[in-house]
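2024-03-11 09:14:02 INFO worker-7 job=invfold-0412 stage=load source=structure_tokens
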């Protein structure tokens, strides 16, 4: 059984994220944990007032969570999933980061509406992609709930990921009968230089339709934007390498930038891989 952690603020955005992931996983029974994180004590209030406010917030959150679970049970028309809830006094990303170390979740899910963006720190969706050590799906507010058909995974010369870390993506592609488009981003177009070889990806995704799409752009982010300007995609996949806080602060990865206000659902593959691991997995003929 897949274990899914979904953060909710009880909004339509969160409900759409739930509808999307339930449809995405098809007939596979999953255990959903719904997380609602909230800030508990205002720093400028008295202790008595803070405790009263905390109790009010907690009671309202419990009632909203019961309603959200009721909605989830209606969405689960096959009645194959189980639903649990957690209320934690913390930031959503902080709570998910803590829980991901305590439990082995297969996937974390969050809705995104592009609001709350900070020039330095981003928003909840960017924090999840940047700091939570798990695969994540960020679902935009106006998500298309039609069946998954076309999935674009962006790769370039700097992309590093163990193929075993792509097993979750492979399962989603197989369940939905979707096509994987390898967006092969190159910085320069030279007549004597071929695009990056992708036979390792073809070998791993054997049985799935994989299409190579080379594109020339100044960086990965620009290549993705160019592709989406002229082509439709049901999901975008990027690789997010494990980073320290300072690395994430001063050098925001492409996954983080895309998560702030995604145009299509974004699946961020969390990777701990190094070049040494990748080289051991290379396919030879």
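2024-03-11 09:14:09 INFO worker-7 stage=emit residues=285
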């Amino acid at each position: 059984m897949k274990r899914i952690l979904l953060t909710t603020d009880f909004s339509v955005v969160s409900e759409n994220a739930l509808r999307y992931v339930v449809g995405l996983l098809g007939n596979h029974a999953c255990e959903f944990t719904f997380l609602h994180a909230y800030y508990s004590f205002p720093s400028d209030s008295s202790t008595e007032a803070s405790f009263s406010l905390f109790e009010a917030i907690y009671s309202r959150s419990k009632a909203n969570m019961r309603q959200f679970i009721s909605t989830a049970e209606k969405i689960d028309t096959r009645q194959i999933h189980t639903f649990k809830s957690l209320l934690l006094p913390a930031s959503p990303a902080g709570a998910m980061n803590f829980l991901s170390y305590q439990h082995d979740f297969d996937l974390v899910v969050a809705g995104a509406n592009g609001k709350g963006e900070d020039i330095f720190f981003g928003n909840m969706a960017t924090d999840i992609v940047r700091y939570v050590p798990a695969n994540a799906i960020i679902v935009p507010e106006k998500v298309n709930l039609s069946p998954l058909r076309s999935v674009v995974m962006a790769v370039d010369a700097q992309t590093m990921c163990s193929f075993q870390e792509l097993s979750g993506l492979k399962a989603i592609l197989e369940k939905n009968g979707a096509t994987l488009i390898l967006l092969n981003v190159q910085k320069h177009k030279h007549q004597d230089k071929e695009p990056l070889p992708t036979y390792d990806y073809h070998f791993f995704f054997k049985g799935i339709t994989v299409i190579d799409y080379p594109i020339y752009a100044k960086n990965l982010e620009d290549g993705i934007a160019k592709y989406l300007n002229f082509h439709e995609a049901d999901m975008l996949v990027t690789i997010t390498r494990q980073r320290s806080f300072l690395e994430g602060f001063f050098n925001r990865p492409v996954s983080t930038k895309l998560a702030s206000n995604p145009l299509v659902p974004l699946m961020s593959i969390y990777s701990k891989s190094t070049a040494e691991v990748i080289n051991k997995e290379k396919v030879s003929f």
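2024-03-11 09:14:09 INFO worker-7 stage=report msg="Confidence is low (pLDDT under 50) at residues 117-122, 244-252, 275-285."
2024-03-11 09:14:10 INFO worker-7 job finished
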